[in-house]
Amino acid sequence: MGPCFYLFDGIDHPLRIKITSSSTTAYYELDLAGNVRGLRASGGASLGDYRYSAFGQTLEDTTSITQPLRWKARWFSPVAGGTYDVRARQWSPELGVFLSVDEYEFQDPSTTLWGWPGQNPQAFKDPLGRGGAPSPSPSPPGHDIGCGGKSDSVSACKCACQDAFEHKLQECREVWGGGGGADHPKELANCKADGRSAKATCECNCDPKACNSVACK
Q1: Do residues 106 and 42 share a domain?
Q2: How far apart are CA 62 and CA 158, in angstroms?
Q3: pLDDT tens column, 119-133
Q4: What's the rounded Cα separation, in Å, for the pair 168 and 172?
Q5: 163 and 117 in a common domain
Q6: Number of helices (H) and strands (E), helices first, in the chain?
Q7: Are residues 20 and 75 in the same domain?
């Protein structure tokens, strides 16, 4: 495929790819689960689409260019039946498991040390490959998301926001805190600030009537 240049809007959120060998520029379309579902040319014309199973098998690929970002916007490699690089581990969409155990030994009753968090890639993300966090979206009334038994929608939603915030802090430390924060202190501080802002907005969305200082999105 030759050298490529990517533009991202955050972790695992690609916006654009430029393929130098063919002077091709394509723009990514992602779904709410973070999967790359389509590509578009600079003028807006469709360059094809992807369709996946719940655990990442490519069921359909009608794209006219070859590029690696697919399910969960992670790098896909066609070797060994196809694998995804989820940073700490490799994910096999054909088997529906990671190819090694979770080194943090994070486990819950709904999955295994090889499985996706909660066995639910739609509701959980795992950008580091070391145990995931719930997507910070409101839960329906009576839905228990595993946050200390909280079952009412507002409490469960705010709990999910806190879990997502803690996961964000972990990401910040992984990416920018190489030497206890000494390597990239400014970037680490900015990353944490982004996490706090996202948590505030998330909690505002959980209970807009109680939110006065944050503009809900």
Answers
A1: yes
A2: 40
A3: 889 888 888 888 765
A4: 6
A5: no
A6: 2, 12
A7: yes
